[in-house]
Amino acid sequence: MNTTELTPDYLAIAEALTQHRDWKEALDSVIQVVRSVFIFDNLALYLFEKEHEPLTIAYARAVGRGQSAEADAAWGEETANEVMGKNSLVVHETARPVDGENRVDFPCLMGLPLRTSEGTIGALVFVRFGGPVYTPDHLQRGQYIATQISSLIDRKMLLEKIKALQDARRVIALQQEFIDTISHELRTPLGFIKGYSTTLLRKDTEWDEETRREFLTIIDEEADRLAELISNMLESARLQSNTLPMNFQPVRLDTVIRDTMFRSKARYNMDVNADLPSCSSVMADAVRIAQVIENLFSNASKYAPGTPVDIKLGESKKHITIYFSDHGPGIPAEHLPHLFDRFYRVPTQTFNTTGSGLGLFICKKIIEAHGGELNVESQMGKGTTFIISLPLVLGKEVHL
Ligand code: ADP
Fold first, then answer.
1. Model's pTM, two decimal places?
2. How far is ligand 1, taken at its centre, from the CA of residue 340, in Å?
3. Ligand 1: nearest atom to the Cα of 345
4. How far is ligand 1, taken at its centre, from the CA of residue 350, in Å?
5. Are the beta carbons of 84 and 123 closer than 8 angstroms?
6. Tell me: the pLDDT tens digits for 108-145?
7. Do domains 3-157 and 249-398 have the same CATH topology?
8. Class of CATH domain 249-398
9. What CATH architecture is 3-157?
């Protein structure tokens, strides 16, 4: 090989390969370079996508005659399989077309194995319709191009492996964190239940009726908390994996809020100022939306006790927005970005309240499943507002 003569082309090919992160874009630019130094009409790349499966077409380009053959790259398949069988270069040449004959019926094929550190991973096939035949110099150039493309594919496979490993590590870390948190969360109420029931069962002590009732009430409340925690965890896991069924129907939000408000007012003994003009229907799961509103009431009663709640409803062309405000102590700004994270609780507010930090995570997921948004604004000393915005028309991303 006359390297002095070929070096500029070789360099240009190598350079084109390293310029792009995306391997198909890299191949596109290689083809631009290769075209000027190597005649061909079509090129196709066949790879083993999966072990023990037949070769599949991974990339095809037509640069000359036979453009239409690009999409249907079956023309090179036989040669590619032959290359794999022999694990070597394969050349097929036909007689040259004479005047009036269609060049596309006279393909000259060159198939080259793509070899990487993992072995032969596929084949590269060039076709020239109607010639010219491949000279030894052409074969050498073809081999060089195949080597460069092999290293590109090698790099692609390596990047895919790294990504798969990183994903697997992230999943393991998340699972571990989840297991640590749930075991901690479940242990607390279980500890109370076990402690108080063991105490009540002690044979050496007589408990008066009032103490017995007090202990049994604690056991009862902690059992409820445990049940709620387990159902919240299951729900959050199902929402995370998009397997919580939603029953979308035309729903009037003013009605849903009014119903939830009456129930919550009585349950939490709180004042509510509501401005709920009748609004258009939205496609929503009424039970899930009520669950979100109920959660906001429960949070207001826990974290802004003794203050009234204001609820407003607004409608624009595309959305219905619910503003849910309390007049409590507010949430420090540094905690706001994490408020909807799973298990997140504002450390300073958790002293006298029970909770798992799952409520707002679940609320956000439910609203997002409707194609909407849940946001929060808070001012220290003034209160907190949760803003739910639901689209009037369900977007494509919502699964009915
Ligand atoms: P939980 O109430 O079970 O702790 P949530 O996910 O419902 O969990 O809420 C997460 C955290 O957000 C709460 O622990 C609390 O610190 C904070 N928070 C929620 N609602 C309010 C509110 N209205 N005012 C102040 N802080 C709130």
1. 0.57
2. 9
3. 14
4. 9
5. yes
6. 999 999 998 888 999 999 999 888 889 998 999 899 89
7. no
8. alpha beta
9. 2-Layer Sandwich (3.30)
